[in-house]
Amino acid sequence: MLNTGAKDCIFCQILQGGYPISEVYSDDVCVGLMTVEPVNAGHAMVIPRKHLPYLSDLPPDLAGHLFKVAQKIAAAIKHSDIPCDGINMFVADGEAAGQEVFHFHLHIYPRIEGDGFGFKYDKRHFNKPPRKELDRLAGLIRQKLTR
Amino acid sequence: MLNTGAKDCIFCQILQGGYPISEVYSDDVCVGLMTVEPVNAGHAMVIPRKHLPYLSDLPPDLAGHLFKVAQKIAAAIKHSDIPCDGINMFVADGEAAGQEVFHFHLHIYPRIEGDGFGFKYDKRHFNKPPRKELDRLAGLIRQKLTR
Predict the structure, then answer these.
(1) Considering the domain boundaries, does residue A125 fall inside one?
(2) Which of A109, A139, B2, B90 has the most CB within a 10 Å radius?
């Protein structure tokens, strides 16, 4: 079980100046920085300054702000001299979703034609569910949706 | 070259009632609906009502709003009876990034332990760039960042 406490959080340590970072953006509530394991050159992340492990821990206004900052960073990557034919944004929320650092982070990375990056799927992905099943699933989600 | 005009946009046609959808959320500016090719059962998307093809076309406040709605849908999926051990969010912006429908959409999908979904990488992903290179790339992005 990976630790979610701020004391042992690598991003909290980074934000406290414990490790060098390559910063692209900074404001009162978040920081944009380069990842050390990029999909392609120019791969950045936006992280909140506060130790908030999961997507559900983000106050909605902060969530919205992080995405707006990510949008700005995406535009900057596109307009920079970094090779970029497209952009992906990605969030891994929870260990089963590929989250490795338990301090929320939103990835922004450039894509280049033929860069070899992509998804691998279980076969069931390609089984298009019937509309009735999609309606059932939508109903289950709507039941739990808070407005 | 795929069409980016609203007339031939499948999402615009959907929003105009031309096709059945399984809706999870709706407000004045966006709709949440089930995808027809889910990674896992419960895979939803948030799309703006307006035909805005790319991430850069979204007014920042709308971008922030879409992410807040996606956060709500993620929470609803987690609290529903749909199997969900984690959540991914994903944006493909541009054909090279895997965008197939040129009407912006933000994916939200549940992940389940052992679901077989994941990334495939080019080998260079695993080459950690030296800090000096990360600093250079961060500098290129900062130069183009509008505050």
Answers:
(1) no
(2) A109
**Which CATH number covers residue B74?**
3.30.428.10
Helix (H, G, I), strand (E, B) or coil at B84: coil
Active site residues of B: 105
Residue A52 lies in a domain: yes
Interface check A29 vs B, CB under 8 A: no
Q: What tens digit of pLDDT does each residue of A76-109 get?
A: 999 999 999 999 999 999 999 999 999 999 999 9
Subunit contact B88:A95, Cβ cutoff 8 A: no
Tell me the whole-structure pTM to 2 decimals: 0.94
Number of domains chain A is built from: 1
Give domain status of residue A80, yes or no: yes
Which candidate, B61, B57, B96, places its Cα nearest to that of A87?
Answer: B96
Question: Cα separation of A77 and B99, whole Å?
Answer: 18
